[in-house]
Records
---
Amino acid sequence: MKKIALSLLTVSLLAGFCAGLAGCDIGTSSRSEIKIGGKTMGTFYNITVIGDYPGGQDQLRHEAEEVLDSINKEISFFDRNSELSRFNQHRSTEPFKVSQDVADVVIASIRAGQELHGAVDVTVGPLVNLWGFGHVKPETLPPVPDDNAINAARKRVGLDKLHVIVGYNSAQLKKDNPQLEVDLSTVGEGFGADKLAELMDRRGIQNYMVSVAGAIRTKGLNSRGKDWVVAIEHPTTEQAVGQRLEIPVCTKGQAISTSGSYRNYKIDEKTGTRLSHIIDPATGKPITHHTVSITVVGPTALWTDAIDTGLMVMGSDEALRYANERSMAIYTIVKEGNEFKSHYSKAMQQYLVCD
């Protein structure tokens, strides 16, 4: 459901990825752990619990997949019977009843869009489709849409056309344009990670890492009694994209997610220009700057998953200014000439130093 391949944010335990990195103390596992994983939302989920889980591994898998199945029934863009799909098929401006979960995700998405001045927009699907990166097969579309097609698609896009109505024990979505559709792919994985974290907390688990694709939540310590660590993939050169340097990030009980563009793009055959799959809602066109990924650390995976896309639209320079003004922890990778260079906000420094 997300805009980024899993490989952009490699989920790793410290002992798992430190091999080969200078100065990294691998050590040995001192506490038992339970691990499960599987498919969800068109991608994968993984859970690591340190110690025991009530009912053991089978119960953990059963309860986790119940949570994820419930989310799919609520916000899946692909399941025509999900709440979100039925709202999208609701070609009317009359309010449409939804669950509180759906309302919460949409509220968070609208808030992120407003905070980032429209740089992230969950209604941007018609433009993503138009450029051949969405649910419409690229072979049915012209290689590069003209301005008339872009302007027509933009009439069906806009957070100002989407409203959430919350009452006592009820929630509704409303659209000003009957053709408006909402795609929560940019935030669904973060929401899923948060819900898995809630499950762990309800079960009294004090030490865990949960992930849905590149959206991750951690709590407590890993099996070595250290902070949980994930690795941001840093491409070295275009010619050696299979090689990677992994930058360790100590999550310190926070959420983390990455938005990136260097793996998902196409080439304009006429101009040779590389077209990113990330669309700027303000222009209706792919981003043109050279930022290839932005990682965000924050309190919830829903928030980091919503914010990272908008920051990618803004680009590294503007994103870093924005983050430093708000003490936000972000890490950016920019293609400068034939090299990829890293930059990070002041608040990110604390997560780049591992004990």
Note: The domain at 83-183 is CATH 1.10.3980.10 (T-fold).
---
Amino acid sequence: MYGLIGKIRSQPGQRAALAAILLEGTAAMPGCLSYVVAEDPADADALWITEAWDSATSHQASLALPAVQAAIAKGRPLIAGFESRVETRPLGGHGLAAA
């Protein structure tokens, strides 16, 4: 499996709008086992994205999907920056089927 955990900073006051865009662009991504968008309770403009994929190849391929491209284009103006990004190798867990 392949995983990513990243922190995205929205433009001030735009976190909810950015989260909505990220969530709407996540349907039907082949190989995606989990895609979670979470608010940072200590930072009003930050979102944490946690992803689990069957492979890094599936994740890379998802970036070319029309729905993902549309979400990126729509969300880009609301993003102030990317603060951290960590690649992981998920082993499994509750709610995550083994690949």
Note: DSSP finds three helices and four strands in the chain.
---
Amino acid sequence: MPDRELYIGLMSGTSADSIDAVLADLSDGQHRLLATFSCEIADLKNDIHELATPGPNEISRMGQLDRELGIRFANAVNTLLHRESINSSQVIAVGSHGQTIRHLPPERGNNIHPFTLQIGDPNTIAHLTGITTVADFRRRDIALGGQGAPLTPLFHRAAFEKPGTPRVIINIGGIANITLLYGDGVSSPLGYDTGPGNGLMDSWILQCLGEAYDDNGQWASEGRVIHPLLEQFLKTPYLLKSPPKSTGRELFNPKWLSQQLIRFGDSMEPADLQATLLEFTAQTISASVRKSHKPIAEAYLCGGGANNGALVSRISALLEPIQVSTTEALGILPGWVEGMAFAWLAQQTLAGKPGNEPTVTGASTASVLGAIHPA
């Protein structure tokens, strides 16, 4: 169809489980999800996570991983197009989030330069796909004094806002974030990282059972919440900060968890800790929604955490009487919302339109984001 505006969005999140690719039609202000493809990158997960903290030979390891991920991203695009019988010439651009390996946003009293770094070489993607690739979306916002995250709220507003209905979009990846959409025609969207999403639970079940994730929260459901430990978790300074704020695996990681457990010894049941981590995620998300300066009528979940039935049930209970559903009810399956967001951000960049929201990130101004790598 000649009137379609086809874009591809690529996403690999904090959990580093997979590369997600979406094919979207963004013509006429619409957000049509046409096709998807996902491929695991389990063999790269340790390498990715090891680069989240300082270590030996970082530049060489990063350079190799940057190229390898660029190839994997390109392969995901080409596989998606092959399956859908779409020629690369029909796609306007690829929007690639890349794989975050370090995120150190502005911090009061800290005299180091804030920075964020995503890898997955966009030059390689553009070359191997033959499609103009837009990437490196976050660093312009950092340069403008912002957090560089989250960047999805403007897309959430474009795709999900409903006049007269205040909503919250809750994205649960390795880290969780929210977007508050007031629907009043006046207020800008608000949003920030609330704290851990699936990341800590994934790390714990991998350590104890060798499983990549807790399927439907089944293991957590077998345990009991350790309330003194939960209370300690909830005192984490990041949670007490006012937005704009963002975080990542640099804070909420296995080392952080080990430090939290020191005074509790080895007597606790592993499933009880999993239950406590699930409750920690649910409470930090729900508390953030409750802090909205206007009442929220509807909540919509997206990201991998939307598939965790135990977590969804707990969030729903904590948010009552707010109606809780997933973004499937709004037309986009929850696992593909972030991929759609970066396809949309590529469109914004090529059109010379802003991709960030200063009320969300704290940047000094709205700006066009990303770097364009021609085919």
Note: The domain at 6-148+336-373 is CATH 3.30.420.40 (Nucleotidyltransferase; domain 5).
